[in-house]
Amino acid sequence: MKKLSFLLFPLLLTACGTAEKPVDQEKPNIIVIYMDDLGYGDVAAYGATEIKTPNMDFLANNGLRFTNGYSSSATCSPSRYAMLTGTYPWREKGVRILPGTAPLVIDTSMMTLPKMLKEQGYHTGIVGKWHLGLGAGQLDWNQHISPGPNEVGFDYSYIMAATQDRVPTVYIDNGDVVGLDPNDPIEINWKKNFEGEPTGKDNPELLTMNWHHGHNSSIVNGIPRIGFMKGGEKAKWSDIDMADHFLEKAQEYVTIHRDEPFFLYYAFQQPHVPRTPHPRFVGVTGMGPRGDVIAEADWCIGEFMDTLEALNLLENTLVVFSSDNGPVLNDGYYDDAVEKLGDHLPAGPLRGGKYSLFEAGTRVPFITYWKGKIQPGVSDALIGQIDLLSSIAQLAGSDITAADSKELLDVFLGKSTEGRESLILEATSRTAFRKGDWLMIPPYKGQKVNKFVNIELGNSAKYQLYNLADDLSQTNNLVESNPEKLEEMKEEFITLRGSGFQETEELVLK
Ligand code: NG6
Ligand code: CA
To answer: Which of the four pLDDT bands, split at 50, 70 and 90, describes residue 11?
Structure first.
């Protein structure tokens, strides 16, 4: 009942006439809706036929749907780092998939998307997944947590620290754990269990979801996680309510800040593991929890857009929709993602997936929507999430520039199709180079297919060169037939990337 009345709150405001605001009188609001592990082929507007995504499709069909839009990395933390800072993640060694205990990886002196907007008079907020580290090391979760999002430009933050599969499994409201009981302090250890505490490994009888690889440490709500946690019982989140909870916070944020320019980074947890749809979404897709949480996320987007509409904000708000990296089915739990997939193709026509240097790792759904400002259409321009900082700066009236972030505002608004000439892609510390229609992957040692997630990583003893215009699925390596193209690509790549690009570590998933 409480929830329902809250959801009606924005509508009531409109009904009372208090939400009326003149359009165009001030700087536009910016909202980034960011999915976690949603693939290029997971959205009906991008060709999915086995799953319905009406609300994502609404954005795509009434906005600009990019077919060559990239995240900066095939994993989460590096992608988010690049989007927020406009800096390539491979420039900084520590920017990789982070443990739940990692310190903040964004230097507080760096320019960021929210910081830039704050300087332009915006109120800035984040709701959802953070996964960019917190504190400065040896964090005490029972004290005020800092530095974090609030120290890199967000006026408001309501987050989970890392991922749904990592401890601590609590929400953090502007740096303070929500619902913390001082008599039941939280203890976190990434490597070592606390004496007497059950684990996924030793106590399978306590599990409601089984682990496949990794994810066998502390058990929260019957789900085994990565890392060990003790205490904080009352503060622990409810997995099945997480989507509704973040939705409420996002709705609350835009409602409170409707009368000033605002930036909201609404970072969903779906369809990352563990996939825990609310019971009202269980079974709706027949595809198991992975499909069901996509349906759940889609519903949340619909509710959220309805709120914006009720607040009369749509004509003064740029909405960007994208995903942090490509899709994965089995990412460490037995949850029927593989078994119930049917004919669905999470990566669409693309090769690879999450963790991969092949296209499906980083080419993601990418949509811009702005009622009345962006003409509906499809754009094939090459763009990256890394370009949002400089482009949105242009929109907000800021003259800041970030080295790796290209100002492509007209492309994002559909006024131009001249995107980037080239883009460096990253996957677990390895890099590849896209230029025009061409994609070059340097030789990398290491496994070709990661057997846990069953994804081709893009490693090969030889250079790979693909022409994506003719060969979107990357089946023909054209190195032999196009030696000149290869040399040209290599040369430019080394100029941009430096020569150390072949030194990497093995991807460890277990
Ligand atoms: C991996 C996890 C995987 C996921 C990923 C991060 C194991 C075995 N695998 O290490 O489940 O959490 O990290 O995903 O622990 S991301 O989308 O946040 O980058
Ligand atoms: Ca992710």
So the answer is: very low
pLDDT of the residue at 24:
43
Probe target for ligand 1 pocket from 322, 509, 510, with the most ligand atoms within 8 Å of CB: 509
Phi first, then psi: what are they for 115, rounded to 5°? Answer: -65, -45
Q: Is the CB of 313 under 6 A from ligand 1?
A: no
- The pTM score is 0.95
Pairing of strands 219-220, 366-369: unpaired
Binned at pLDDT 50, 70 and 90, residue 510 comes out as low
Question: Which residue's CA is minimally distant from atom 13 of ligand 1?
Answer: 97
Peptide bond into 168 cis (omega under 30): yes
| 392/510 Cα distance (integer angstroms) | 39
Answer for the pair 92, 104: CB distance below 8 angstroms, yes or no: no
The DSSP secondary structure of 231-300, one letter per residue, reads S-GGGBPPGGGHHHHHHHHHHHHHHHTTTS-EEEEEE--TTSSS----GGGTTSSSS-HHHHHHHHHHHH
155 lines ligand 1 (CB under 6 A): no
342 CA from centroid of ligand 1 (Å): 24
pLDDT tens-digit map of 465-477: 999 999 999 999 9
C-beta 131 within 6 A of ligand 1? yes
Q: Is 163 in the pocket of ligand 1 (CB under 6 A)?
A: yes
Using one digit for the tens of pLDDT, what is the confidence trace for 335-350? Answer: 999 999 999 999 999 9
Q: Is 510 in the pocket of ligand 1 (CB under 6 A)?
A: yes
Q: Determine contact, residues 18/10, Cβ cutoff 8 Å.
A: no
pLDDT tens for 347-370 read 999 999 999 999 999 999 999 999
The verdict on the CB of residue 337 being under 6 Å from ligand 1 is: no
Asked whether 37 lines ligand 1 (CB < 6 A), one says: yes
CATH 3.60.15.10 for domain 34-180+232-288+310-422, yes or no, is: no
CA distances to 98, 204, 215, 425 from 90, in Å: 14, 39, 27, 9
Domain residues of the chain, as ranges? 34-180+232-288+310-422, 187-230, 423-505
Q: ω before 147 within 30° of 0 (cis)?
A: yes
> Are 352 and 455 within 8 A, CB to CB?
yes
Supply the residue whose CA is at minimum distance from atom 8 of ligand 1: 214
Topology of the domain comprising 423-505: Arylsulfatase, C-terminal domain (3.30.1120)
> Same topology for domains 34-180+232-288+310-422 and 423-505, yes or no?
no
Q: Quick one: three-class SS letters along 338-363?
A: CCCCCCCCCCCCCCCCCCCCCHHHCE
